[in-house]
Amino acid sequence: MSTDEIVDPTIAPSDQFRRFLFHIGIPVAGVVSVIAVIAGVGWHSYRTVRTGALTLTHDLLVSQQDYVAKEVSSFLMPASAGAIVARDMLEHGAPEVEQKIFNGYSSTMMRNVPQIQSFYIADSDGNFSTLEHGEKPGQTALTTLHDVGTPKAIFTHELRDDNGKLLKQWQTPAGTYDPRGHGWFADTVKAGQEVWTRPYMVEVTKQVTITAAVPYKGSDDKTYVYAINMSLNHLNNFLNSLKIGESGTAILLDQDEHVVAGHGMQETQAKAHGDPSRMTLDPEKFPVMTKAFDEYRVHGYGARTVKVKGRRYVTITANLPVGKDSWVLLMVAPEDDFSRFAMADGRQNLLFFILVVTMALGFGLLLFLQARRGDRLRNQISQARAVANYESHALQSVATYPELFNPEDNALVLTETLADQSHARRAAIWRILHDGHTLMCIDSYDRQQDVHSGGFEMSTTDLKSFFDAVSHGDALVVTDASTDDRTTAFYRVYMRAFGSKSLFCNPILGSSGPVGVITLEDAPRAEMVYHFVDMITGVAAARFSAQHYTAVAAAREELESEPPQGSEGPEDTSQGFLLAPGALSINGQPGTTDLSQMEGFYPAVTIMVISLSDMIMTAQNDPAANIKLIDEMAIALQDIAHQCGLYSIRMLGHRVVCVAGCSRTPDKTAVFHMANAALMMRENVLAMLSKADLDPVFRIGIDVGPVFGGMLGKNPQAFNLWGDAMGMAEMMAQGAPDVGTIQVSENVYQRLRQYFLFRERGRFFIPGMGLTRTYVLAGRR
């Protein structure tokens, strides 16, 4: 290929823009323009049809409203006009024919006006007459009451046929009945003019009734009230018989939302147990009417549209005057009842437009995807090249690390490179210790905080499922570690505290099986760099092997070397030494045991304190058994102190104090000997207490630091040490996290971290020292 044909995309951005413009920009813009035009035309057509349909619906409802209003007015007019006519007839008639006028006029009105239920007439003395329908059609029943308030007060009942012939007459006690106490009488007399009562229930007929009453003065100067009672059942039947669209309804309400007549009257009456004051709209059964009435309260009379449960309704409210009050005529109909044909046509056109738009959009999408596919492939190739180059640089940085296979170096570059390559939140390298039952975190790197940590220790007892999954030697990929049976325990113990969720595990294989594991938390690119993780596992396996051989060689050298023999000091049983202080090196001169020269300052002395619980001292009932157990423990500690070359070991009550490196010039090997002694003493004490069936209630603390030493007393003299190291070692023992553990200070950790395994406990406040870190000694590397 000619060099002229080679194109570098990194130096030709204008070509990329032009390719994007012709392949994607122009086609997409054209499709979008067509879609916009079609959608605009369709939406405009739909809105035009819908607006016309709503206008037609409102006009139809207004016509229907006028018709209903006239019918309701015609329904109420006989009561209003009839009461006025009867008042004039009775007011100007002679008293002796007053009852005949009342009977004749009232019976005529009842026969010709079906909505009239009964007539009342009463005077200011309490005399009362009522005329109502009889037992059969055409019959009338007249009831009169005289002598109100006296024992003679009785009701006289007469039943007559349509010709006025008396059919039956009887009397009943009137009791305390007094018409003057009823609202239709008292309110009318008080008003001095025609009064319409609120709807009320008539106990005899169980019908909701409304009364129109007028007052007048009789020739005998008494105040009379003439009342016409109208049953609302007829009005209710009329409103229910109306056909408003296909499913529209009408209802009459007063200004307080009490139902007078119309849709749902029977359900409302049953729910209110016949009490008109409780007959209100139920929002659950009549949500549309309730919302329409609320709109009326806010905006007044008129037509408007409401939306309930996703469906639109047309509502109209009109005023119907009833005396001094007024009723509200409320009509409700679904919007599509009157305009179904128009709405169907609009929806059909809209669906057609949507279909065309969808097809155009589909073709445009296919064109866009085809163009994007080529760009995506080019991007994937570029990304693969970038990942390969990045991995090459990462491998180069790992390979050029000078201390990569040095077992004494932590090689922090391994976890850092793993986290960077996989974009993991945390990367960690774990090692299975020689006992096969413990998993120790060698190094953990948090990429977000850019910090390293280590020393975390877990056992197979707590993580059996996780150990079983790792022991197969296959990689483990878990999206949610908290729900997977294999990683649930590992998530609870280790991951949950850091807030990570997904987990990628790759075992580190040795010659006889897995010797460790690499974990990546929240690593989106873990599977993409799987081969890179494999290479790091090989490096980690080689480092574990080197650390193992180094630790074995160090142990063999230590066992073969002769322990330092210090010249024994003068025997003095009063000092309580299990191992008397050894030879003291002064100013670089050969050792001496002259106690008079042992006083002074020692810059770096290693001190270990073993704190024994009172349970060990008091658990045995037999004092001889107690002394035997403590004696066996003391002998074992003496032997270990001799073997490890400690300077002295002394038992003080429930504490055992061990000293190493007590010299004027610091002994760098003293802390190493003390750590070996601590591990050996822990194992021996655990075995003895287990054999004696006692719990391992002891704790161990170690520190390195300056102390003062000197002889105290006169005869006999006692050698004693005190200072910062002594106090710190005792606090390490007292504050150890668990029984049987060895807690060390940061000074000890800094000197031994290349040779022993530690688990970090965190930062703690030590009185007199401030904030410091402490660690738990787990074992040898």
UniProtKB/TrEMBL annotation:
Instruction: Please state the protein's primary subcellular location.
Output: membrane
Tell me how this protein sits in the membrane: Multi-pass membrane protein
**What positions does the domain Guanylate cyclase occupy?**
592-733
- E.C. code: 4.6.1.1
Biological processes per GO annotation: cyclic nucleotide biosynthetic process; intracellular signal transduction
Q: Which residues cross the membrane?
A: 20-43, 350-369
Name recorded for this polypeptide: Adenylate cyclase
Q: Which species does the entry assign this protein to?
A: Komagataeibacter europaeus
Organism classification: Bacteria, Pseudomonadati, Pseudomonadota, Alphaproteobacteria, Acetobacterales
Q: Which gene encodes it?
A: cya
